[in-house]
Structure formats: structure tokens, C-alpha cells
Design the sequence.
């Protein structure tokens, strides 16, 4: 736990490697999106001059595809505990998570909802993570088939293209929702701090990740302040 200049107590949430991986993944995704548009439809052929032509667009798309794959590898090497915790949490669902989705719509539209205590990752973050993992997996696997068709059967190649397109469309929807909750939601500033500076204020942790907050208090990593919270 540490204290900021304005005396706001904060607690560490993400390591520097998780932060690096997040922003590298985000940059790679949007670069892939941009370089894929003219490859996907002639309507975006006007982008070719900006990308250096069709061949350069393909080369850039493959370069950013490698960058897109790197983040989990980096976290696996330098902070595997965080990676394993994220994956395990994403696929571990409890009744509190289901209750979250009943109450969250009210908060989504700016109201004050009575949301059940959440863990380090709340149910919304878990859902986003699961969809991200599934979409990324489909994009990478189908992309490998499209990149190296000589190693696959014609049937697999035939399926790779629609799978890639469907996964791409779904991932755009997931990213759009993620961006709104990260930038447009009333609590976005507090949550965004975690992915920029690596820590969040304790009031935010208590209100939005109550189970995690209680665990920190129980471990003695933070001292509960009755004046903070709800």
C-alpha cells in the first residue's frame, strides 16, 4: 500500500509487465485492424498508399500479428503468476458473478447499484477476458493457417477465412465495449489508473472488488479504514 500526494491511499493491482503487455496488445490490435481493412474489402483500397502498397500492407499485417502474439509470452516469462491468475480467474465463475450481471445494468447507465462483492477481477472483466481469449485464439489459429497454407489441407484453409472474419468482427465488438467502460464509464478514471500506474485507490478496490479488498485486509497488506467506502 502507498499514499499519493493528495493523501489518497492506493494498493498495487498490476505489475509493469502486465501493463506493458496490455498496451502492446492494444496497439497491435488496432494496427492489425488498420492494415486488414484494404485486404478485406476494395472499399478501403484508398489506404494502400498510406501503407506503402498491397505488399507492404500484407507485410505490416504479419509484423503486427507477431506483436499481437508476444504480450502473453512476455508475461509468461517475466510475471507468470499474474498470467496464471488471470486465466484461472477468467474461467472460475461463482454465484456472485452471476448476480453481478443482474445489478450491473443500473450502474452501467450511471446509477448506484447494489453489486455483490467481487474478486480481483469482477464478472464483467471476466467476461471480457474470456471473449478476448477466445477471439484472440481463433484469430491467431486461423491467421497461421492463412499465412502458411502449404502446411494445411484445403478443407482447413477453406474454414480459416470465415473463422478469421467472424473472430475479427466479434473482437471489434468486445474492444468497443471495453473502451467504453475504460473511458466513458463514471468509474473509468479509477480503473484506468490501474492499467497506467499499476495501482488503484483503496476506496475503488473496496467498492468494486470487495472480496479482493477483504483478502488484503485479512492478509494485513492494507489497514481497513471505516471512513472509506461505499
Sequence:
Amino acid at each position: 500500500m502507498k499514499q499519493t500526494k493528495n493523501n489518497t491511499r492506493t494498493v498495487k493491482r498490476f505489475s509493469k509487465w502486465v501493463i506493458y503487455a496490455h498496451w502492446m496488445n492494444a496497439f497491435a490490435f488496432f494496427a492489425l485492424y488498420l492494415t486488414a481493412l484494404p485486404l478485406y474489402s476494395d472499399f478501403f483500397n484508398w489506404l494502400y498508399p498510406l501503407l506503402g502498397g498491397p505488399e507492404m500492407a500484407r507485410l505490416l499485417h504479419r509484423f503486427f500479428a507477431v506483436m499481437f502474439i508476444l504480450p502473453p509470452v512476455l508475461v509468461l516469462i517475466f510475471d507468470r503468476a499474474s498470467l496464471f491468475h488471470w486465466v484461472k480467474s477468467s474461467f472460475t465463475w461463482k454465484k456472485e458473478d452471476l448476480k453481478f450481471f443482474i445489478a450491473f445494468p443500473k450502474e452501467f447507465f450511471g446509477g448506484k447499484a447494489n453489486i455483490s462483492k467481487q474478486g480481483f477481477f469482477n464478472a464483467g472483466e471476466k467476461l471480457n477476458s474470456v471473449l478476448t481469449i477466445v477471439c484472440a485464439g481463433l484469430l491467431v489459429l486461423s491467421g497461421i493457417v492463412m499465412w502458411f497454407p502449404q502446411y494445411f489441407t484445403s478443407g482447413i484453409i477453406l474454414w480459416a477465412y470465415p473463422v478469421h472474419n467472424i473472430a475479427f468482427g466479434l473482437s471489434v465488438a468486445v474492444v468497443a465495449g471495453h473502451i467504453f467502460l475504460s473511458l466513458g464509464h463514471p468509474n473509468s478514471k479509477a480503473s484506468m489508473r490501474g492499467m497506467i500506474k499499476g495501482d488503484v485507490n483503496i476506496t475503488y478496490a473496496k467498492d468494486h472488488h470487495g472480496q479482493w479488498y477483504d483478502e488484503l485486509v485479512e492478509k494485513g497488506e492494507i489497514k481497513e479504514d471505516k471512513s472509506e467506502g461505499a
In short: The first strand starts at residue 2 and ends at 3.
